[in-house]
TrEMBL record:
Database matches in PANTHER family: BIFUNCTIONAL ADENOSYLCOBALAMIN BIOSYNTHESIS PROTEIN COBU, PTHR34848
The organism of origin for this protein: Thiorhodococcus fuscus
Keywords: ATP-binding, Cobalamin biosynthesis, GTP-binding, Kinase, Nucleotide-binding, Nucleotidyltransferase, Transferase
Protein name as it appears in the record: Bifunctional adenosylcobalamin biosynthesis protein
Function: Catalyzes ATP-dependent phosphorylation of adenosylcobinamide and addition of GMP to adenosylcobinamide phosphate.
GO terms for MF: adenosylcobinamide kinase activity; cobinamide phosphate guanylyltransferase activity
The reaction(s) this protein catalyses: adenosylcob(III)inamide phosphate + GTP + H(+) = adenosylcob(III)inamide-GDP + diphosphate; adenosylcob(III)inamide + ATP = adenosylcob(III)inamide phosphate + ADP + H(+); adenosylcob(III)inamide + GTP = adenosylcob(III)inamide phosphate + GDP + H(+)
Enzyme Commission (EC) number: 2.7.1.156, 2.7.7.62
Pathway note: Cofactor biosynthesis; adenosylcobalamin biosynthesis; adenosylcobalamin from cob(II)yrinate a,c-diamide: step 6/7; Cofactor biosynthesis; adenosylcobalamin biosynthesis; adenosylcobalamin from cob(II)yrinate a,c-diamide: step 5/7
């Protein structure tokens, strides 16, 4: 990307951008993709639902913000395959978002989920193309009252924790700032 890679122990050139809802994480990721100077493939994990006006408006806001020359892939579940198929090109791949991908796969049992998460980790680690991953931070509030909410929070939190050290840099976007965690923090083993 346009910025220096920060994590010398990382085998990947991927960048992780995480933060709470409405923090600006997608805009920061889009800025990094633009700064890469490469054609951008926006890998959208959202499923469109014409019955949900709010969700449709959110998807449209993302579309309107992106440059028209960026290409878009709609990949609600088969993210690993899409990344492998587009790896090695001169393109920058921007995945928005891992939280939506996790939600789309919430019905998988623990073994199936673990296999998918491990496959994604391997793809991220081996990716040769510039790759930017956007992820929501969900575990900072009240413990969800329902099992499916706890499963979602735990799966996404664990995925982010495992991907962060595999990425060249990780950003936390909050309070109007993008903080480079790779410079400010120490990876947890």
């Amino acid at each position: 990307m346009g910025r220096a890679q920060r994590n010398p122990s990382s085998a990947s050139s991927a960048v992780l951008v995480c933060g709470p809802a409405r923090s600006g994480k997608s805009e920061w990721a889009e800025r990094l993709a633009h700064e890469s100077g490469r054609p951008v493939v926006y890998v959208a994990t959202a499923r469109e639902d014409p019955e949900d006006a709010d969700w449709t408006a959110r998807i449209e806001a993302h579309r309107q913000r992106r440059p028209g020359h960026w290409s878009t892939l709609c990949v609600p579940t088969d993210l690993e395959t899409a990344l492998v198929e587009h790896d090695g090109s001169d393109q920058c791949l921007l995945v928005d978002s891992l939280g939506t991908w996790v939600a789309n796969l919430i019905e998988l049992d623990d073994t199936q989920w673990r296999e998918r998460a491990e496959r994604l980790e391997a793809v991220v680690e081996g990716c040769r193309s510039p790759l930017i991953l956007v992820a929501e931070e969900t575990g900072w509030g009240v413990i969800p009252a329902y099992p499916i909410g706890r499963t979602f929070r735990d799966r996404l939190g664990n995925l982010i924790r495992r991907l962060g050290p595999r990425c060249a840099s990780s950003y936390m976007v909050t309070g109007g700032y993008a903080l480079d965690l790779s410079l400010l923090g120490e990876p947890i083993s």
